[in-house]
Amino acid sequence: MSPSLGILRVSRGTCLVHSARRGTLGLVLASRGVRPVSSCPDHHYDVVISGGGLVGFAAACSLGQSQRLSDRKILLLEGAPNKPWQLPGEFSNRVCALNARTRTFFRKLGVWEHIEQLRAQPIRRMQVWESCSEAMITFDGQDQEDGALAHIVENDVTLHAIKKQIPEHVEVEYNAKVESCQVPKDSSSRVMLSLADGRTISTDLLIGADGAKSLVRRSMGVQHLAWDYDQMGIVATLQLSEAVDNTMAWQRFLPTGPVALLPLSDDHSSLVWSTTRQQATHLLALSDEDFTEALNRVIWEDNESDARVKSIHQAWLRLLETVVPGESKDIRQLPPSVARVLPATRGTFPLGLGHAVHYVGPRVALIGDAAHRVHPLAGQGVNLGFGDVAALTRCLDNAVLLGEHLGDEEALHQYEKEQQRYNVATMASIDGLYRLYNTTAAPLVLLRSLGLSAVNVMSPLKDKYRRHIKAWTMTDDHSQIRDYKAGLALRHLVV
């Protein structure tokens, strides 16, 4: 080879990739790609996000706004078409309860101000009770800066606000379906993607945001633990009987699953009703009037209550009042009455749990439903996904600062460690609640009723429970870097 001419001789099955930004030449083995051995990828990107949706677009927004990643080529592949959108007059039946963790993240990205300009309804108080007894617990947002436990926001509103904040240098391709992806066994090779239109793309880091049936996850070959709850979730938009200060969320646990009313405005709420597949089929077949009547019955009636359990529970409440007389007693508030379900707003979706044993591999990371799926009873599904995005962004920022390449598996493990520690605990709590309330056996009904009332009356227990549900500690960059360096040093010493 002649250095003056800069000519490289390459073997068959390899292609030469030039990076103008770095001014370097690198050899990329293409023999394991999705095209014939002798072909080269049509395009190369530093980061490719496979899958749009709320979490995928949030990743494009967050990574695109990162100063340390500002010179990196980022591509988002969205399989759906790009449809024009404007705020409709009627509420959508697809909503999310964005918690304080997500709102903090969105404020940093400039997304939250767009959401507030469109529409978002705060939840300042929440009342949870069960149909088999009078046990209940209430929460409020007094420990939050804005006094809200969460905000109910339509998915389309959130998505529109996120898209407005994606920097121009981030490329977004619609109608871009990934047919296959070749994940390397180590970080020495790049990920190769094959698109439905025949193009091939290579990337230093592939982020799988492609949902519960993730192609990226399957291509990684990681173990995925999953099961169905044999339940369906029913969603709808409701009009209340009268306009009120509708800032309270209501959730009642039934033997067939929880039913929740989430505020949208003074006279509208969103319904999330989890029930058996058989009952869901029956409810969907009802007329709007009959469905409204059935909904009001499960919110108001006490047909499922057990007289023995209620009697023991009342004695327990009197004992608690004696033990902790100084504690304020929550007054049970009556839920609103539903006047009607808005036409054509009812829909269903299957319920289940899923979790990838590993979120990362060489040059690959999973976020959102591709990594985990939970029951909607706590409204944490998409919030966990947004938490993934925030943690992965911090991880990549730190990797660049320390001179690591974006797909380095050791660097990506910091993201996996942080998020699995939080996500697994949250998922276990949600699954445990589902199983605890998915029975009418009198002994278990009694135990859960006594426990719920005790937590509600005793402030220290209640505060601890609330912190467990909402906790999310945002560490600063310096501590993240320090922990990362310590982890690297420890691994090198072990090796």
What does this structure look like?
It is a single chain. With 495 residues, the chain is of the alpha+beta class. It has a single domain, classed as 3-Layer(bba) Sandwich (FAD/NAD(P)-binding domain). It has helices at 53-65, 100-109, 112-118, 155-164, 215-220, 277-285, 288-300, 307-323, 381-401, 409-437, 442-457, 459-470, 477-494; strands at 14-19, 24-29, 43-50, 74-77, 95-99, 121-123, 125-130, 136-140, 150-154, 171-173, 178-182, 191-195, 200-208, 224-240, 248-254, 257-263, 268-276, 338-341, 347-356, 360-361, 364-366, 372-373. Residues 1-39 and 469-495 have low confidence and may be disordered.
Q: How far from one another are the termini?
A: 37 Å
Q: Kindly report the average pLDDT value.
A: 84
Structural class: alpha+beta
Domain count, please report it: 1
CATH fold naming = FAD/NAD(P)-binding domain
Radius of gyration: 25 Å
Biggest sheet layout: 9 strands, mixed
**General form:** globular
Helical residue percent? Answer: 25-40%
Instruction: Report the β-strand fraction as a percent range.
Output: 25-35%
How many beta-strand segments?
Answer: 22
The CATH superfamily turns out to be FAD/NAD(P)-binding domain
Family: Belongs to the UbiH/COQ6 family.
Protein name: Ubiquinone biosynthesis monooxygenase COQ6, mitochondrial
InterPro entries: FAD-bd (IPR002938), FAD/NAD-bd_sf (IPR036188), Ubi_Hdrlase_CS (IPR018168), UbiH/COQ6 (IPR010971), UbiH/COQ6_monooxygenase (IPR051205), UbQ_mOase_COQ6 (IPR000689)
Subunit structure: Component of a multi-subunit COQ enzyme complex.
